[in-house]
Protein backbone atom coordinates (compact mmCIF):
# COMPACT_ATOMS: atom_id res chain seq x y z
CA UNK A 1 0.00 0.00 0.00
CA UNK A 2 1.09 3.56 -0.64
CA UNK A 3 1.75 5.47 2.55
CA UNK A 4 1.17 9.21 2.52
CA UNK A 5 3.16 11.27 5.01
CA UNK A 6 2.41 14.93 5.61
CA UNK A 7 4.62 17.49 7.29
CA UNK A 8 4.35 19.26 9.56
CA UNK A 9 1.54 17.81 11.68
CA UNK A 10 0.56 21.35 12.60
CA UNK A 11 1.65 24.88 11.92
CA UNK A 12 0.75 28.34 13.14
CA UNK A 13 1.02 31.19 10.67
CA UNK A 14 0.31 34.90 11.03
CA UNK A 15 -2.55 36.35 9.05
CA UNK A 16 -1.36 37.35 5.60
CA UNK A 17 1.70 35.11 5.76
CA UNK A 18 2.46 32.00 3.72
CA UNK A 19 1.59 28.50 4.87
CA UNK A 20 3.26 25.48 3.29
CA UNK A 21 2.21 21.87 3.76
CA UNK A 22 4.20 18.95 2.38
CA UNK A 23 2.98 15.51 1.38
CA UNK A 24 5.26 12.61 0.49
CA UNK A 25 4.12 9.31 -0.97
CA UNK A 26 6.00 6.06 -0.39
CA UNK A 27 6.01 5.43 -4.14
CA UNK A 28 5.35 7.54 -7.19
CA UNK A 29 1.73 8.44 -7.91
CA UNK A 30 2.57 9.73 -11.40
CA UNK A 31 0.74 7.70 -14.04
CA UNK A 32 3.09 7.61 -17.02
CA UNK A 33 0.41 6.97 -19.65
CA UNK A 34 -1.29 10.34 -19.07
CA UNK A 35 1.44 12.17 -17.13
CA UNK A 36 -0.95 12.91 -14.30
CA UNK A 37 -0.28 12.73 -10.59
CA UNK A 38 -3.08 10.89 -8.81
CA UNK A 39 -2.95 13.20 -5.82
CA UNK A 40 -5.68 15.35 -4.29
CA UNK A 41 -5.83 17.90 -1.48
CA UNK A 42 -8.75 18.49 0.88
CA UNK A 43 -9.63 21.06 3.51
CA UNK A 44 -11.69 20.09 6.56
CA UNK A 45 -13.13 22.58 8.99
CA UNK A 46 -14.48 21.49 12.39
CA UNK A 47 -17.81 19.72 12.20
CA UNK A 48 -17.80 19.63 8.41
CA UNK A 49 -16.98 17.00 5.80
CA UNK A 50 -13.80 17.54 3.81
CA UNK A 51 -13.86 19.85 0.82
CA UNK A 52 -11.89 19.15 -2.33
CA UNK A 53 -9.25 21.77 -3.11
CA UNK A 54 -7.04 20.22 -5.82
CA UNK A 55 -6.93 17.16 -8.02
CA UNK A 56 -4.15 15.98 -10.35
CA UNK A 57 -1.93 17.60 -7.68
CA UNK A 58 -2.29 21.12 -9.05
CA UNK A 59 -5.71 21.54 -10.70
CA UNK A 60 -7.77 23.85 -8.54
CA UNK A 61 -11.36 22.83 -7.93
CA UNK A 62 -13.95 25.41 -8.99
CA UNK A 63 -14.52 28.06 -6.34
CA UNK A 64 -11.23 27.54 -4.48
CA UNK A 65 -9.51 30.91 -3.92
CA UNK A 66 -6.34 31.45 -5.93
CA UNK A 67 -4.31 32.06 -2.77
CA UNK A 68 -4.28 28.26 -2.62
CA UNK A 69 -1.88 26.43 -4.91
CA UNK A 70 -0.83 22.83 -5.34
CA UNK A 71 2.45 21.62 -6.79
CA UNK A 72 4.78 18.67 -7.04
CA UNK A 73 5.13 15.44 -8.94
CA UNK A 74 6.06 11.83 -8.42
CA UNK A 75 6.42 11.43 -4.68
CA UNK A 76 6.69 14.98 -3.33
CA UNK A 77 3.85 17.46 -3.22
CA UNK A 78 3.12 20.82 -1.65
CA UNK A 79 0.00 22.76 -0.76
CA UNK A 80 0.65 26.48 -0.33
CA UNK A 81 -1.59 29.19 1.04
CA UNK A 82 0.06 32.38 -0.15
CA UNK A 83 -1.62 34.76 2.29
CA UNK A 84 -3.36 33.06 5.19
CA UNK A 85 -6.88 34.25 5.99
CA UNK A 86 -8.85 33.53 9.14
CA UNK A 87 -11.23 31.28 7.21
CA UNK A 88 -8.32 29.03 6.16
CA UNK A 89 -7.98 27.63 9.69
CA UNK A 90 -8.61 23.94 9.09
CA UNK A 91 -7.00 20.54 8.77
CA UNK A 92 -5.60 19.76 5.33
CA UNK A 93 -5.22 16.27 3.89
CA UNK A 94 -3.50 14.86 0.85
CA UNK A 95 -4.83 11.68 -0.75
CA UNK A 96 -3.53 9.37 -3.45
CA UNK A 97 -5.66 7.32 -5.82
CA UNK A 98 -2.88 5.79 -7.91
CA UNK A 99 -3.24 2.43 -6.21
CA UNK A 100 -6.33 1.99 -4.11
CA UNK A 101 -6.73 5.12 -2.00
CA UNK A 102 -4.93 6.47 1.08
CA UNK A 103 -4.93 9.73 2.98
CA UNK A 104 -2.13 11.54 4.72
CA UNK A 105 -2.48 12.00 8.47
CA UNK A 106 -3.50 15.63 8.13
CA UNK A 107 -1.92 19.00 8.89
CA UNK A 108 -3.64 21.43 11.22
CA UNK A 109 -3.29 25.09 10.26
CA UNK A 110 -3.84 27.72 12.93
CA UNK A 111 -3.38 31.46 13.31
CA UNK A 112 -0.26 32.61 15.15
CA UNK B 1 -27.20 20.17 -6.98
CA UNK B 2 -25.28 17.14 -5.86
CA UNK B 3 -26.48 15.74 -2.56
CA UNK B 4 -25.29 12.76 -0.58
CA UNK B 5 -27.01 11.82 2.66
CA UNK B 6 -25.83 8.98 4.86
CA UNK B 7 -28.04 7.09 7.28
CA UNK B 8 -28.01 3.96 9.40
CA UNK B 9 -25.46 4.95 12.00
CA UNK B 10 -26.00 4.45 15.71
CA UNK B 11 -24.89 2.54 18.75
CA UNK B 12 -24.00 -1.12 18.26
CA UNK B 13 -22.40 -3.66 20.56
CA UNK B 14 -18.99 -5.18 19.83
CA UNK B 15 -19.39 -8.09 17.46
CA UNK B 16 -22.56 -6.64 16.04
CA UNK B 17 -23.50 -5.63 12.52
CA UNK B 18 -24.78 -2.50 10.87
CA UNK B 19 -25.72 -1.40 7.38
CA UNK B 20 -25.08 2.16 6.33
CA UNK B 21 -26.89 3.75 3.41
CA UNK B 22 -26.12 6.76 1.28
CA UNK B 23 -28.86 8.38 -0.79
CA UNK B 24 -27.59 10.26 -3.81
CA UNK B 25 -29.32 12.95 -5.84
CA UNK B 26 -28.55 15.75 -8.25
CA UNK B 27 -26.35 13.69 -10.60
CA UNK B 28 -26.44 10.49 -12.64
CA UNK B 29 -25.48 8.07 -9.89
CA UNK B 30 -24.69 5.18 -12.20
CA UNK B 31 -21.98 7.21 -13.96
CA UNK B 32 -19.76 7.54 -10.91
CA UNK B 33 -17.56 5.43 -8.69
CA UNK B 34 -18.52 5.88 -5.04
CA UNK B 35 -16.64 5.47 -1.82
CA UNK B 36 -16.77 5.34 1.97
CA UNK B 37 -14.33 7.18 4.18
CA UNK B 38 -14.36 7.24 7.97
CA UNK B 39 -13.02 9.48 10.70
CA UNK B 40 -12.60 8.34 14.29
CA UNK B 41 -13.27 11.01 16.92
CA UNK B 42 -10.46 13.56 16.88
CA UNK B 43 -8.53 11.59 14.25
CA UNK B 44 -7.74 11.87 10.56
CA UNK B 45 -9.48 10.53 7.50
CA UNK B 46 -9.28 6.82 6.72
CA UNK B 47 -10.35 5.49 3.33
CA UNK B 48 -12.64 2.47 3.76
CA UNK B 49 -13.82 1.24 0.35
CA UNK B 50 -14.80 2.10 -3.20
CA UNK B 51 -17.10 0.58 -5.79
CA UNK B 52 -17.16 0.98 -9.55
CA UNK B 53 -20.11 2.25 -11.54
CA UNK B 54 -21.66 -1.16 -12.08
CA UNK B 55 -20.50 -2.68 -8.82
CA UNK B 56 -18.25 -5.14 -10.59
CA UNK B 57 -15.11 -3.77 -8.97
CA UNK B 58 -14.64 -3.09 -5.28
CA UNK B 59 -11.68 -2.50 -3.03
CA UNK B 60 -11.17 -2.18 0.69
CA UNK B 61 -8.61 -0.94 3.15
CA UNK B 62 -6.47 -3.92 4.15
CA UNK B 63 -7.47 -3.60 7.79
CA UNK B 64 -11.15 -4.02 6.91
CA UNK B 65 -11.15 -6.78 4.34
CA UNK B 66 -13.51 -9.58 5.20
CA UNK B 67 -15.62 -7.57 7.65
CA UNK B 68 -17.02 -4.76 5.48
CA UNK B 69 -18.88 -5.08 2.16
CA UNK B 70 -19.71 -2.20 -0.16
CA UNK B 71 -22.60 -2.40 -2.59
CA UNK B 72 -24.82 -0.14 -4.64
CA UNK B 73 -28.27 -0.08 -6.21
CA UNK B 74 -28.20 2.17 -9.24
CA UNK B 75 -31.97 1.94 -9.66
CA UNK B 76 -32.38 3.43 -6.19
CA UNK B 77 -29.44 5.85 -6.42
CA UNK B 78 -28.10 4.32 -3.25
CA UNK B 79 -24.77 3.19 -1.84
CA UNK B 80 -24.40 0.79 1.06
CA UNK B 81 -21.80 -0.39 3.53
CA UNK B 82 -22.44 -3.62 5.36
CA UNK B 83 -20.31 -3.84 8.49
CA UNK B 84 -19.87 -7.07 10.45
CA UNK B 85 -17.94 -8.10 13.54
CA UNK B 86 -17.75 -4.50 14.65
CA UNK B 87 -15.05 -3.44 17.09
CA UNK B 88 -14.57 -0.43 19.33
CA UNK B 89 -11.98 0.89 16.87
CA UNK B 90 -14.65 1.06 14.15
CA UNK B 91 -16.25 3.93 16.06
CA UNK B 92 -16.21 6.85 13.63
CA UNK B 93 -18.14 9.19 11.45
CA UNK B 94 -18.66 7.43 8.13
CA UNK B 95 -18.81 9.58 5.02
CA UNK B 96 -19.95 8.56 1.58
CA UNK B 97 -18.38 10.40 -1.30
CA UNK B 98 -18.67 10.62 -5.06
CA UNK B 99 -15.50 9.76 -6.87
CA UNK B 100 -14.44 11.58 -10.03
CA UNK B 101 -10.64 11.74 -10.22
CA UNK B 102 -10.88 12.05 -6.43
CA UNK B 103 -13.65 12.51 -3.85
CA UNK B 104 -15.38 15.60 -5.18
CA UNK B 105 -18.60 15.55 -3.16
CA UNK B 106 -19.09 14.30 0.39
CA UNK B 107 -22.12 13.68 2.55
CA UNK B 108 -22.37 15.11 6.07
CA UNK B 109 -21.57 11.73 7.59
CA UNK B 110 -23.24 9.31 9.99
CA UNK B 111 -21.81 8.40 13.38
CA UNK B 112 -21.25 4.76 14.26
CA UNK B 113 -20.48 4.02 17.89
CA UNK B 114 -19.36 0.53 18.89
CA UNK B 115 -19.68 0.09 22.62
CA UNK B 116 -21.13 -2.29 25.15
Structural class of chain A: mainly beta
The count of strands of chain B amounts to 11
* Largest interface summary: A-B, 22 and 20 residues
* Backbone shape of chain A: globular
Q: Sketch the topology of chain A as an H/E string, one letter per element.
A: EEEEEEEEEEEEE
Low-confidence stretches of chain A: none
Mean pLDDT across the residues of chain A is 97
| Cα separation of the termini of chain A | 36 Å
Q: Could you give the distance between the termini of chain B?
A: 40 Å
Number of strands of chain A: 13
Overall helicity of chain A = under 10%
What does this structure look like?
- The complex is a heterodimer of chains A (112) and B (116).
- Chain A is an all-beta fold and 112 residues long.
- Chain A contains no helices and 13 strands.
- In chain A, strands 2, 6, 7, 8, 11, 12 and 13 form a 7-stranded mixed sheet that branches.
- Chain A starts with a strand and ends with a strand.
- The mean pLDDT of chain A is 97.
- Chain B has 116 residues and is mainly beta.
- In chain B, a hairpin with a 4-residue loop joins strand 7 and strand 8.
- The radius of gyration of chain B is 13 Å and the shape is globular.
- The mean pLDDT of chain B is 97.
- Chains A and B meet through strand 6, strand 7, strand 11 and strand 12 of A and strand 5 and strand 10 of B.
Features of the shown structure:
heterodimer; A: 112 residues; mainly beta; seven-stranded mixed beta sheet; four-stranded antiparallel beta sheet; 0% helix; globular; B: 116 residues
Structure, briefly:
The complex is a heterodimer of chains A (112) and B (116). With 112 residues, chain A is mainly β.
Amino acid sequence: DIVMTQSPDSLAVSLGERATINCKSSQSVLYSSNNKNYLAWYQQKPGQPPKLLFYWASTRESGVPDRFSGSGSGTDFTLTISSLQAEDVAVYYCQQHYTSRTFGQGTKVEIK
Amino acid sequence: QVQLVESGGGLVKPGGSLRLSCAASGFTFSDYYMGWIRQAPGKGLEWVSYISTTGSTTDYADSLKGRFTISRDNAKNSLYLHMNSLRAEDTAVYYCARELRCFDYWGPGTLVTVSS
